[in-house]
Structures are given as structure tokens and as C-alpha cells.
């Protein structure tokens, strides 16, 4: 067992969580970020609390809606989805294993920088998100 009653995590799972935390701390304008599995389960978040569960549900629903639209239009897989609101942006980017990265950023952020940094994170996390790591991350989120 690791600190606070949570089981020790593998290097790969710890790496995914660290990448997400580092992303939040280093990309100006990013407020929150989640990694969500292809079946809608929260795998990792940049913050603790109920907001991550809510964001992961929104990201999952948006991903499903975008995939349905892409399928109906016969235009291939969805790579990125963006919703711009009065006070911010929600950007969702596909990860190679079918999971996705969802990021909420402020309205005044540099979307080019956010998207570029998201693409780097997706590439790095995609290599680490094996089925075993996804399962481990989900279990870790469930015991928090």
C-alpha cells in the first residue's frame, strides 16, 4: 500500500497522472483536465473533487456525440472536438487507445498552445495507456 490507504501504482500509471498534473501546471489558461476511457470511465484527473467526475461525464458524452456525427457523415474518426462558451473552452482530443483527453481552459488562453501541448500529452500518454494501466488508473480513481 502507498500513502493514504491507496495501493502502490505502477510506473506507467504514475507517469500518466504526473503528465496530466504537469500539463495543468505548465500550460497557461488550463483550468482542469481529465483522461476518460473509451467506455466513459474517469482514469485520471488534474484535480481532486466532484468537478472531475462531472467533467469526465461531459467529455464522454461529447465524445460519443461527435463520433455519432462523424459516423453519420462518413468522415472518419474524430480527432478533436471544441466547445467555446462565454467564459472558456472545452477541448477534447482522442488518445490512440480509444480514450480521450478533456481540457477546460479560460477564454483568453492561447488555443494554439493549448492544442499543441494537448497533442504532446496525448502522444506521451497514449503509449502508456495499456489495458492493464487503464484498469489500474480506474481502480485508483474509485478508491479516492
Major sheet: order of its strands?
Answer: 2-1-5-4-3
- What profile does the largest beta sheet have? 5 strands, antiparallel
Distance between the termini: 14 Å
Helical stretch tally: 4
Q: Could you characterize the architecture of this molecule?
A:
The chain is built from 4 helices and 5 strands, in the order H-E-E-H-E-E-E-H-H. With 144 residues, it is α+β, with helices and mostly antiparallel strands. Strands 2-1-5-4-3 form a 5-stranded antiparallel sheet, with helices on both faces. A hairpin with a 5-residue loop joins strand 1 and strand 2. The chain starts with 10 loop residues before the first helix and ends with a helix. The N terminus is likely disordered.
Could you list some keywords that capture this structure?
single chain; about 140 residues; alpha+beta; five-stranded antiparallel β-sheet; 4 helices; 5 strands; about 20% strand; disordered N terminus
Summary, kept brief:
The protein is of the alpha+beta class. It has helices spanning about 10-25, 50-75, 110-130, 130-140, and strands at about 30-35, 40-45, 80-85, 90-95, 100-105.
Give a topology summary.
Elements: H1 11-26, E1 30-36, E2 42-45, H2 50-73, E3 80-85, E4 88-94, E5 100-106, H3 111-128, H4 131-142
Antiparallel strand pairs: 1-2, 1-5, 3-4, 4-5
Helix pairs in contact: 1-3
